[in-house]
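Researcher: Please predict.
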Amino acid sequence: MSTGFQIKKLTAADKSRWDDFVQNCSEATFFHRAAWADVIESAFGHETHFLYAERNGAIEAVLPLARIKSKLFGHSLISLPFCVYGGAAAISEAAAIAVEAEAVKLADKMGVDQLELRQRHPRHTDWPVKADMYVTFRKELDPDPEKNMLAIPRKQRAVVRKGIEAGLQGQWDDDVDQLFDMYSRSVHALGTPVFSRRYFQVLRDQFGKDCSVLTITKDGRPVSSVMNFYFRDEVLPYYGGGGDDARQYKANDFMYWELMRRSCEQGIKVFDYGRSKVGTGSYSFKKNWGFEPAPLYHEYHLVRAKTMPDINPLNPKYRLFIETWKKLPLGLTRLLGPMLVRNLG
């Protein structure tokens, strides 16, 4: 029996009502917004397929997808690369099933290795899934900044206060230059390829007031910086990093506290620390703030692949690359990094 849904692909004419749906759908996230299609196409050159299920002229589900085809890292259809959340956002199970079925058909037609859906809740018990690798950290904020400070565990709170005592200052940044400098230094130290400066500028251009950069300074000199996304009553610090002396001044710890404090003053209710891999330094750092991890579900419809992909820094096969990358000059990693990272997703 027909469900009455029409499955359509996002066009420029649809963007406003797509975003209206996302704004009001409880399952949707910042990463379901229509502008991600422009970001991924413009910054990385990847093909996007933003699908939606429509019935009686109204959108009932959306599913943003992008295709990454790489000789090094495989051929995937993902919801959504470079994003922590994805999958179908729907107002009914029937609508979600309809738009997911179209994604499966598209993946099969393309002959990708796999279709990957990154979700906060499981949906396909019969699909291969990574449910113990990634977690997300989210916490409600108290309207009173001092209560949020006291909610930070004692040892971490002491670290934050060291940053305050060091005279660190926060300022909203009008451009992405300082962010790019801080972020590229941090990922270089981790042995990870950096995004291009242009990518950060595209994010600012596409999301406008819903994308901010907070830079922390010491005696007027930048020591750390973070790019933040805003969605409904949530703030998501997403790309952050520190300079060579950030550790000395506890600048990254102060930076997240300063964002939290300012968010309270803006009426933000939820602080989303984003995704981390279990067992990493990022995971431990967020736990130290008193945030509790919640599992993320990366579900796979395998097409040509026989097993789920394992493209992550913890995979032993990438260890030599990581250690070599750390030893490269910073300038060279800024040149080569964007060519590699565009295919990681």
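Model: The longest helix spans residues 93-110.
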